[in-house]
Amino acid sequence: MPEDFLMGAFAQPAEEAAFAFRACLEAMARPGRVQTISGAIPPAPLSVASGTLLLTLANASTPIYLAPSHDTAAIRDWIAFHCGAPIVPAERATFALGTWEALHPVSRFDIGTSDYPDRSATLIVEMDALSEPNARLTGPGIETLHEARLPEIAAFRENRARFPLGFDCIFTSDTSVSALPRSTYVTAL
Amino acid sequence: MTEHAYNFAYLDEATKQMIRRAILKGLAIPGYQVPFASREMPMPYGWGTGGVQVTAACLTPSDTLKVIDQGADDATNAVSIRKFFERTARVATTTATAEASVIQTRHRIPEERLSEGQILVYQVPIPEPLRFLEPRESETRRMHALEEYGLMHVKLYEDIARHGEIATSYAYPVKVEERYVMDPSPIPKFDNPKLSGMAAIQLFGAGREQRIYALPPYTEVVSLDFEDHPFEPMKADHDCDLCGAGESYLDELITDDAGGRMFVCSDTDFCAARRAGGHRGRLVPEGDAA
User: Fold this and answer.
1) Which residue, among A10, A15, A19, A21, would best test binding to B if mutated, counting the most B CBs under 10 Å from its CB?
2) pLDDT given for residue B235 in this prediction
């Protein structure tokens, strides 16, 4: 009987990662639109969507910060085996993973430099659900406006105000995923 | 043999992950050129190695791929890239714009309006719009950071001073969401208005120069100009001699040694579809449909 952390990866790595990335690409290109991704079966409390995102995007060159909500031995082992990504403090993370409350204060995450705004963190935020919109989104990727569920409003308005600097967020819940790049304008619904 | 010799879509998974992360950051910062570790591809630089890597990172087994070179599905570059993905990714291919989910293009935007669910991948030779004005990467990077684009306007102004109009006819610089000045790749400026507000996702890959950039759908893209010299898209003042279209971008073909010439749609799929629909141009005799 193999150890649990050895399990839960893609059965068809190239193809499943391709489908997962396309959903992720659509999510980032159309902020607030919910996509479905699956394939990974990670240890709880990591959602299927978050686990699939990590398998699709993370590897040894992407340091990960685990917020207290998700900093368990099982998740550390799973990431170490399947992604090989180092676990680091928040300030040095390429990806940060956790619930919104556990990720606070979000001001510590890397927002890039004015020469290289792409060298910034991507937050993978675990949510209870992505339904019941509480925010109105406008900006690139949105024809008129999208409504979306966000964990709060103020932090994303501050993030947009720093554009082109800022972090980008991917929200996950079960097998659902949506994204909020730094370029999106957010107002409360 | 080939089916088992390569990973799906040729690139290894770690490389695709790196390209995918660059694409996501590109989408988050529209018009900003994200550096990426471009790989050697089994084709020379200048043949679309950047576009091929972006396409490889985006393709899924259920995609239908279309590849065009200057609008044509049957040019060498388009044919070889289409064959490359048929063999290494085993995806379906098409020449019909509406049927494609991923379209890789060299130097044109299809005439037909693209829709949500489609991705347009551009092959880019020189991604830096300021490169011919300032050769140092360290300087152009700083100019983008400071939004210092005065030099580009000086260049366009010198065009006007010398030629009476902005003479730049392709790779015409644009400003994205009022922030980054971007090179739209060497598309004719006729195509520039289509960049803005497009429903499809637009991705740009420059292999030799190791840059990826992106336009999310419905992004505002403005061609640079002056109040008294507004931007004007430009095409040959003719109709297509094969399909009669008056609104498409035309190629001029020399047909003999006596100055004979004809104008045909650069978008071969658009032209063929019109001819199949019964439209006829100047040089197609009566009754000779398509």
Assistant:
1) A21
2) 86
Please state which architecture CATH assigns to domain A8-188. 3-Layer(aba) Sandwich (3.40)
- B182 - beta bridge partners? B174
What is the DSSP secondary-structure string of A138-151?
Answer: ESTT-SS-EEE--S
Domain ranges of chain A: 8-188
Separation of alpha carbons A170 and B216, rounded Å: 16
Q: Which residue of A has its CA nearest to B180?
A: A164
DSSP, collapsed to helix, strand or coil, labels residue B86 as helix
Summarize pLDDT for B122-169 with one digit per residue, the tens.
999 999 999 999 999 999 999 999 999 999 999 999 999 999 989 899
Chain B residues with beta carbon closer than 8 angstroms to that of A142: 218
Asked whether residue B290 carries a pLDDT value surpassing 50, the answer given is no
Asked whether A34 and A64 are in contact (CB, 8 A), the reply is: no
Q: Is B58 a catalytic residue?
A: no
Average pLDDT, chain A: 95
The ipTM, to two decimals, is 0.97
| β-bridge partners, B253 | B262
Active site residue B271: yes
Per-domain boundaries in chain B = 2-223, 235-283
Give tens-digit pLDDT for B188-239: 999 999 999 999 999 999 999 999 999 999 999 999 999 999 999 988 899 9
The residue annotated as part of the active site, out of B31, B48, B117, B164, is: B31
Which residues in chain B (87-116) have CB-CB distances under 8 A to chain A? none
**Cβ–Cβ < 8 Å for B140, B130:** yes
Residue B32: pLDDT over 50? yes
DSSP state of B121: E
> Are A183 and B177 within 8 A, CB to CB?
yes
**Tokens for B252?**
């001029």
Residues of A in contact with B219 (CB under 8 A): 140-141
A15 and B24: CB-CB below 8 Å? no
Residues of chain B positioned with their CB less than 8 A from the CB of A17: 13, 16-17
Q: Which superfamily is assigned to B2-223 in CATH?
A: Bacterial phosphonate metabolism protein PhnH (3.40.50.11310)
A19 touches chain B (CB under 8 A): yes
SS3 assignment, position B119: strand
Q: Which of A12, A25, A94, A167 to mutate to test the interface with B (most CBs of B within 10 A)?
A: A25
